[in-house]
Design brief:
Blueprint (H helix, E strand, L loop, with lengths): L2 H6 L1 H21 L22 E13 L5 E9 L2 E7 L1 H4 L3 E8 L7 H9 L6 E8 L13 E2 L10 E7 L4 E3 L1 H4 L38 E3 L3 E13 L4 E5 L9 E6 L21 H7 L12
Antiparallel strand pairs: 1-2, 1-12, 2-11, 3-4, 3-6, 4-5, 7-10, 7-12, 8-9, 10-11
């Protein structure tokens, strides 16, 4: 309650509170939240892919040729085979996912608790890498614990995928390479300030450096996702998947290939565009006319 309401009396205070309540109700109705409907079982959409994926390693880049002779740059990835080590259910863990194992690890490097996990899953050889892949609860019934999944069982030509990998580490870099800053002018009067980042803060106000200030530091070696890539070809006998374009990370880097979180359709080769003939009669008449320098036929 404001001081002027006390001065006007109890009636004015009650009127002011009633008016404020009506105004708040009107504003809440006008600016209702779109992501919170009345349905009690509503859940906001997850910003992650709930499609099946597999672990693999990046081999390198190459190119494939189409029937018309055009070349397309692709990345070769050895995908799988991956073994299902465990399941995560909504009733027990609060979410649904599959725990996949990739590559083999020597028994001498496996601890007793870890060996018990693989023994329970009927997996003979322990896995070197374990990753969880989120799925819909109804999709878990398709995969049993101990099953080996190959690339050809999950991916096919034309699938749109997301590739998660770790980017190449660049070490400690300055602001010009890390944040693409311009630097200072390399002219007379500039001394030892060519590649500096400039001022990083003020004096009294705010008296500190703001969080997130772009400065020099470690560059690269972070998780990155290349989204909406297309599977060009799946080599079943070699467990190799050819992906259109580049994926993050260096050669022999560990990657996770999953179905795209966006429901989009992409084509490996763009459709041929037919050349539209001109409707201008002047251009049409000149198309078959002889050139000006051509000699006239002799009679």
């Amino acid at each position: 309650m404001r001081p002027r309401d006390l001065a006007l009396g109890a009636g004015a205070a009650a009127f002011t509170a009633h008016t404020f309540a009506l105004l708040a109700a009107a504003l809440s109705t006008a600016f209702a939240r779109v992501d919170k409907p009345e349905a009690a079982d509503y859940k906001p959409p997850l910003a992650m892919s709930l499609k099946m994926g597999l672990l693999g390693r990046k081999v390198g880049m190459t190119q494939v040729f189409h029937e018309d002779g055009s070349a397309l740059g692709v990345t070769a990835v050895t995908v799988g085979p991956c073994v299902v080590v465990a399941k995560r259910t909504t009733e027990k863990h609060g979410y649904s996912a599959l725990q996949l194992g990739f590559e083999e690890r020597p028994l001498r490097l496996v601890s007793r608790p870890e060996s018990g996990i693989y023994k329970k899953a009927n997996v003979e050889k322990p896995a070197r890498h374990l990753r969880e892949v989120r799925l819909e609860p109804k999709e878990l019934d398709k995969y049993e614990v101990g099953k080996v999944i190959r690339a050809s069982e999950v991916f096919k030509e034309g699938d749109v995928i997301d590739v998660v990998g770790t980017t190449k580490g660049k070490g400690y870099q300055g602001v010009m390479k890390r944040h693409r800053m311009a630097g200072d002018s390399a002219t007379h009067g500039t001394h030892e300030f060519f590649r500096h980042g400039g001022s990083i803060g003020c004096r009294l106000t705010p008296g500190r450096v703001h969080k997130g200030k772009r400065m020099s530091g470690l560059m690269g070696n972070v998780q990155n996702t290349a989204s909406d890539l297309v599977v060009v070809k799946v080599l079943d006998d070699k467990n190799v998947v050819l992906v259109k374009g580049a994926i993050p990370g260096a050669a022999n880097g560990l990657v996770l290939i999953k179905g795209s979180v966006k429901d989009v359709r992409k084509y490996v080769v763009p459709r041929a565009i037919k050349e539209v003939e001109s409707k201008n009669p002047m251009k049409a008449s000149k198309k078959g006319a002889p050139s000006a320098g051509a000699s006239k036929p002799k009679k």
